[in-house]
Amino acid sequence: MMKNRQPDGCREVLKLKIAIVTGASSGMGREFALQIPQLYKNLDELWVVARRTDRLKNLQEQVKIPVRIFDGDMQRDYIFEKLQRELDRRQADVRMLVNAAGYGKIGNVSDIDLNCTALTRMTGICLPYLSKGSRIVNLASAASFCAQPGFCVYAASKAYVLRFSQGLAAELKKRGILVTAVCPGPV
């Protein structure tokens, strides 16, 4: 929601402060979506992205701030186009982006599309809306530190997430935007 104030005859527009969580229908993404509104009291909305609409609606009932649902497959263009339109339309101030969408299946090359390509694309879409003090959290994995026979595509995709996060952190340091790669073990 855009808020207009007119101090001393001037018009000031306050941007909508949001957090975006991908993979919010389950696992760590869902947990981030539940925790963020408790930690960031000044958010106006939480935007959640995942394929399973019913789970996102259930999540919406549990969160105490307005939740915008973006249901869709992050391996398809339409979800990114929809998010881009809404970010532009709302002139959002993205305070936090959590890239938690992803999965690991033994030997599945499509892991690269979701774990790497979608995460990179989502970050690129949100970058113009991040400002000093914003944070990006990318879900990597302990698997990013070692090769795993039979699970090598997943491990390699998560190594990409870790290195991408490290490089992005260095690039965004001057803008005051923090980037964190979370590398959990099996969950």
List keywords for this structure.
single chain; 187 residues; alpha/beta; 6-stranded parallel β-sheet; two-stranded antiparallel ribbon; 5 helices; 40% helix; disordered N terminus
Give a summary of the structure in a few sentences.
Helices cover 40% and strands 24% of the residues. It is α/β, with parallel strands linked by helices. It is globular.
Average pLDDT rating: 89
Secondary-structure-based class equals: alpha/beta
Helix content: 40-55%
How many DSSP helices?
5
Which strand-content bin applies to the residues? Answer: 15-25%
Largest sheet report:
6 strands, parallel
How many β-strand stretches?
8
Write the H/E string, N to C.
Answer: EEEHEHEHEHEHE
Blueprint (SSEs and pairs):
Blueprint: E1 3-5, E2 12-14, E3 17-22, H1 27-39, E4 45-50, H2 53-62, E5 67-71, H3 77-90, E6 93-99, H4 110-126, E7 130-139, H5 152-172, E8 178-182
Parallel strand pairs: 3-4, 3-6, 4-5, 6-7, 7-8
Antiparallel strand pairs: 1-2
Helix pairs in contact: 3-4, 4-5
Structural features, described:
40% of the residues lie in helices and 24% in strands. It has helices spanning 27-39, 53-62, 77-90, 110-126, 152-172; strands at residues 3-5, 12-14, 17-22, 45-50, 67-71, 93-99, 130-139, 178-182. The strands form 2 sheets. The protein has a 6-stranded parallel β-sheet with strand order 5-4-3-6-7-8, sandwiched between helices. The model is unreliable at 1-9 (pLDDT under 50).
